[in-house]
Design a protein that fits this description.
Layout: H1 46-58, H2 62-75, H3 81-99, H4 102-120, H5 132-145
Helix pairs in contact: 1-2, 2-3, 3-4, 4-5
Length: about 160
């Protein structure tokens, strides 16, 4: 069977695209030099999640930061899912904006901001020092500038105050 006709699979047999990706998560041709993927299913404490995601954001790799947030929402307590999902949506919003997809970027920035606002409105939920208000301002300002070109590294938000 021809390589392009087969479906890539991971070690457990699940469908998983094995093509290399660039820093914004875009698939590259097989055999091209890509950026190392974030390992999936890594369990981190919230401070580690925030450190790793901030490192990736600062490096201009918001797609990869989104994967770190996704691990946190899948492995963490159910009550915190909107926090980590909202952060992942902001990271993907920045990804789309940097790829030139201003409509998708604006939509995800809005959804992420909404998720974080609903989370923050709940009584007694942990925020781990995340500057939820500052992220909302950042997302609204970035969205308002679209479709202007976006550099993911210089536009990366600060997650904590």
């Amino acid at each position: 069977m021809e390589t392009s006709a087969r479906r890539d699979r991971d070690a457990e047999g699940r469908a998983r695209n094995a093509r290399p990706r660039d820093g914004l998560g875009r698939p590259l041709p097989y055999g091209a030099e890509g950026v190392a993927r974030q390992p999936e299913g890594v369990q981190r404490v919230p401070a580690e999640t925030l450190r790793e995601a901030q490192r990736l954001l600062d490096a201009g790799m918001p797609f990869h930061a989104h994967e770190v947030f996704e691990d946190a929402w899948k492995a963490g307590p159910a009550q915190e899912e909107p926090l980590w999902r909202g952060l992942a949506q902001l990271a993907v919003g920045l990804t789309h904006a940097a790829r030139g997809n201003s409509r998708g970027g604006a939509s995800l920035l809005e959804r992420g901001t909404g998720s974080l606002a609903r989370y923050a409105a709940r009584e007694g939920v942990p925020t781990y020092g995340i500057d939820l208000d500052g992220l909302a301002v950042w997302a609204r300002e970035l969205s308002a500038r679209l479709p202007a070109p976006v550099d993911a590294a210089t536009e990366a938000p600060r997650l904590t105050g």
